Amino acid sequence: MLSPEQATDRAADLVARARKAGADAADAVYSASASEGIQVRLGKLEDVERSEGEHMGLRVFIGQRSASIGSSDLSTAALDELAERAVAMAQSAPEDRFAGLAPQELLTHAPFLDFDLHDPADPGPAALRAAAEEAEDAARSVAGVTNSDGASASAGFSVFALATSHGFAGGYRGSSHSISASVVAGEGAEKQRDGNWRHTRHRADLPSAAQIGALAGERAVARLRPGKLRSGPMPVVFDPRVSSGIVGHLISAMSGNAIARRSSFLLDKRDAQLFDPAIRIFEDPHTLRGTRSRPFDGEGLPTRGRTLVEDGRITGWLMDSASARQLGEVPTGHAARGGGGAPSVSVGNVHLAAGSLSFEELIADIAEGVLVTELIGQGVNGVTGDYSRGASGFRIVNGAIAGPVAEFTVAGNLLAMFARITPANDLEWHRPINAPSLRIEGMTVAGD
């Protein structure tokens, strides 16, 4: 795998080839990854997976026409052909007055901040297998667990680089480590499945494999013999396992691309009181070892921490350069790049601030409600904000958890849901988007 410096040179070389082929402007991204994973089931090795790959993406501009193309063949001849094909495609593309590279005066430059995203230690297959076995053993040792879907451990490394024809060049490396376990509890028609999974940049930041596995087993056993919920309006509490999805829907709706296309339920809501004034949502792409940390965005603009929701109001849209031009604003450093194509919008290390109530205090006055621990399906309309998801979890009766429930639906509208959110103080910090338990009043539950 190339070093970040070598990857940056490779991206800059492709930009030079595009200019030579006739592009007025261009940018190129280089991405490479290598990963190894071990899966065990019932104490036996089930799968060993090793993958490596390199990819380059090229975007060229001819006037206000543009085209994007990518390739995993990085030979000299292939890159020359890539540049020539991209220019030919751009010459035939329709004009787009919002297309173009990021404003040159806004670019960031080396040296870039180091967020300790790369763990150089490679655990190797023996250590990965031992971790997977330990996680599964811990899960299977929980009373009531009767079978296993398996456990896995993996480690991976990546390099990303970006170069543009107007003065940006930079790259960085990262690593990833994960352990997961999934087990079955109960017998016959009473079986229930659940699991646990953790992912970090550094292996030392993972909980022990035994902790991960034990929680997987406990979750599966807790779901045994689920009951049914009655239908009707009631308070719904979203567990931290799923509450981050509520914040994710907000972020998607804040995308400048969605606003520019007028396909967001937040249209005309920029200055509206969406949440209780106590609700705050923050983004910090500079978190040390953060899973979504990065020193620059996919267009070479600096990333920075910012408040996304303050005093219950959103603070603005999340924009790449094209959507910013369309909206008459300034890009916000949220562009993300994959292997090819135009930038999309992405955030880094977001959290909804914890409230002052413990989980027990959050549910203490609920006479009848439900704690949701799993959501099923994709029933969210990003244009209207209508929300309807299949779910499972636990009944709340007279302020206490009263047993598992399954096969019900929770529904509402995201704007109404935002206005009724009350957060607990049990914020967890290991996901790309983090949120505590969230209580939302008056949702519609469709159960028995």
From TrEMBL:
Instruction: Tell me which SUPFAM superfamilies the record gives.
Output: Putative modulator of DNA gyrase, PmbA/TldD
Lineage, top-rank taxon, reads Bacteria
For this protein, the record's Pfam families field holds: PmbA_TldD_1st, PmbA_TldD_2nd, PmbA_TldD_3rd
Metalloprotease TldD/E central domain: which residues?
A: 119-224
GO cellular component annotations of the record: cytosol
Domain Metalloprotease TldD/E N-terminal: where? 26-90
Q: Which GO terms describe its biological process?
A: proteolysis
Under the heading InterPro entries, the entry gives:
Metalloprtase-TldD/E_C, Metalloprtase-TldD/E_cen_dom, Metalloprtase-TldD/E_N, PmbA, TldD/PmbA_N, TldD/PmbA_sf
Q: Where is the Metalloprotease TldD/E C-terminal domain?
A: 231-447
Q: Which GO terms describe its molecular function?
A: metallopeptidase activity
Q: Which PANTHER family match?
A: METALLOPROTEASE PMBA
According to its UniProt record, which protein family does this protein belong to?
Belongs to the peptidase U62 family.
Q: What is this protein called?
A: PmbA protein
Which organism encodes this protein? Novosphingobium fluoreni
